[in-house]
Every structure is written in structure tokens, then in C-alpha cells.
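Justification of resources, computational component.

The compute hours requested in this renewal are based largely on the per-chain cost of generating structure records like the one below. Each record pairs the submitted sequence with a full C-alpha cell output. That output is archived, and it is also reused by downstream analysis tasks.
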Amino acid sequence: MIVTALVKTGIGKEICDDSVFNGENIISQDAVIVFEKIESSWFAVADGVGGNAGGHEASTYLLDYIQCNYEKTDDEAALELLLKDANISLIDNAQKIAGKEQMATTFTGVFFCNEGLKIAHSGNTRLYALQGNYLKQLTSDHTTYQWLIRQGNYEAAEMCNKSEIISCFGGGDNDLLKMLSVETILMESIPNTLIMTSDGIHDYVDIDTFEEILCEPIPIKERVVKLWKKAQELGSSDDCSVLIMER
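The structure output for this chain reads:
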């Protein structure tokens, strides 16, 4: 598997709240890295909540906890329990850091197992599959906007803060992990290319432009950089992460 990771600090920020696990390392500062022949069983993007102090610490802590404790499994319940334990540990650790007791992060991860692939998700980071020249979003955003859309309240949805999340890890309260989805894709259905992004990318780059850049006949490293620069060109000042896994 070839794995390409980009992490970029937002405009005017000193610390990046995004963190990526690329199968080898946790990346939480400016980098564009391509690894070939990665055999890791899991990959993830975590986006520390910028409205809470400690977003950087939250995203890196969560990924580090998983890295230290995850054992490959086909059991969805076991993976869900691990992630809930990670949430409790994150909250407990935050209480020891003055001024950062409410630190929080979103999370999207893929975990390869014997029967296929497990997707774990909470918040508004995203997982896509690239099928031919088209992207298919495999996760649903846990945001006020999407909740209102599902309720059929389109007028309120258009007026709300579209990036406001309704589920996350941490935040000083275990009940904030309201929506933790864990689902399995069987081996024969796993797409050849999977892509994870933080909202600094997908909130700004429309799907057509996203597809166009990903399918350009240039090296993958140049494509992810072009995607990040396009997000900035379209108004993103947020931290940006892209993780691409190609089988």
C-alpha cells in the first residue's frame, strides 16, 4: 500500500490542531510524506476542536492511545470499546492540564482486519472512496447542519453554522461522544483508493474540483499539495489534512 499524508497549519496559527496517523507515525506539524509498502493495519485523521484550548493535544493524544492499545480484530464491539476507552482516557488526561480541560477532537479511522475494513468515525472529518474518477463519501458528518437536513428542516439548516459538530472525543464530558459509528466493509468491496480529509479541505473544495485534482496525471505528492493550495485559494485559513491510501 502507498500512503500519502499532508498536514498543514492554518494561516496565522502557530500550532496545528490536525493530526494524522499514516500507518507509521503520528504527524501533527507541517509535512507532506509519501510512504510505499506500508503494512499497517490502521490509518486515521483527527482534527482538534479549534474552539477549545488544547486541540493539538487532543488529536495527538487520541491517536497515540490507539497506536499503543489497538490490536487487529474482526470484532466491531471490541473496536468500539477501545475507542470509548480512549475517550475516557483523553478526558481524564485533560483534567491534569490547566486551561485545557475541555480539549476535544474529531476522528475518522480505517482499521484493516481479516474480513475486510472497519470504519470508525465521530465528528466532521471525512472518509471517501475514489471509484474511477468519482469520489464517494463513506462517512456522514456529525454536524448540526446534517442533523437538521435529516430532520427535513432545510431552512434552519441553511441558517446554522454548517461546521458546528454534535459529536466528538473529549470535551470534558463523556456524553459528548454522542455519535460513534463503527461499520465493516467486506474484503471484496474495499475500494483501491481511500481518502481522508479534515474540514479545512472539504469545507472549501467542491467535489468536482476535488475529483479533478485527484485524477490529474501528476505525482500523488503534487496532487495533495495542489488540493491544499486550492482550499487556501478558496478561503480556507484552517488547518488542513489529507491522507490517501492506495492499494
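The longest helix spans residues 76-94. Residues 125 and 199 are 6 Å apart (CA to CA).
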